[in-house]
Amino acid sequence: MSAVTGTPVTTGTGVPAARRLRLGGMTWLVGRQHRAAFLTVLGGSALLLAWIVFQRARLTDFLTGYGWPANDLAELGPEFEPYAAAFGPVSIALGLIPVVLGVFVGAPLLAGDLEHGTAKLVAAQSATRTRWLATKLGLTALVLTVSTVALSLAFGWWWAPVKEQTTVLDWTSGAAFDTTGPMLVALTLFTVVCGVAIGVVLRRTLTAMVVTFVFTVGARIAWGEARPALGDVVTVTTDEGVVAENSFPVLPDAAYQIDQSYLTGSGELLGWSTCVRSETEQARELCLKQADVVGWSVDYLPISQMAGMQWLGAAILFALTAAVAAFLFLWGRKRLV
Question: Going by C-beta distance under 8 Å and a sequence separation of 6 or more, which residues neighbour residue 248?
Answer without folding.
Answer: 238, 242, 296, 298
